[in-house]
Amino acid sequence: MVAEIFVDSCSPEETRSLGARLGEEVREGDVIALQGPLGAGKTCLVQGIARGLGVDPQVPVTSPTFTLVGEYPSRIPLRHADFYRVEDSRRLDDAGFRDLLDGKGVLVVEWPERFPDALPEERLEIRIEIRSECERRLTLRAHGPRAEGRLRRMQERWR
């Protein structure tokens, strides 16, 4: 059974706040797959995760659309990948993407649906749905026992 929770956000600040709470919960080796249309707030969520992990607030966290991966030092290194402009899975191999799955950081991937086989089965999937100009619905779905445990703990703490 796949565990999932739903969270509504009414602003970019709320999305960042949710991300910060998530960043406080993640552990080394966690993989988060972020799905949603352009402008849904995926990068806002990653900015919050970065703050929750302790990335220096002076460091700008942006989508690595042209570089494929951005890394940010924090209590657990944050690795932020973006598959949006990747045309071929060989590009992932050439860029060393598989090395990011070494369990030594938290990996967050935007547009994972472009190359679903590149990600491990064990992951937390977050789908962001645009409900209005400002409102978003986030669906957090766990895949695998580790992610299910993480999602259960988050659900208990976020009540």
Features:
159 residues; Rossmann fold; 4 helices; alpha/beta; single chain; 7 strands; seven-stranded mixed sheet
What does this entry look like structurally?
With 159 residues, the chain is an alpha/beta fold. It has a single domain, classed as Rossmann fold. It has a seven-stranded mixed β-sheet with strand order 1-7-6-2-5-4-3. Helix 1 packs across helix 2. The longest helix has 14 residues. The mean pLDDT is 91.
The gist of it:
With 159 residues, the chain is an alpha/beta fold.
- CA-to-CA gap between the ends? 22 Å
Order of adjacent strands in the largest pleated sheet = 1-7-6-2-5-4-3
Order of helices and strands: EHEHEEHEEEH
Q: Strand share of the residues?
A: 25-35%
How many domains in all?
1
What oligomeric assembly is this protein in?
A: single chain
Q: With helices defined by DSSP (H or I, 4 residues minimum), what is the helix count?
A: 4
Q: Work out the number of β strands.
A: 7
Question: Given the C-alpha coordinates, what overall shape results?
Answer: globular
Which SSEs are present, and which pair or pack?
Elements: E1 4-9, H1 12-25, E2 31-35, H2 42-53, E3 69-72, E4 78-82, H3 89-94, E5 106-110, E6 123-130, E7 136-143, H4 145-157
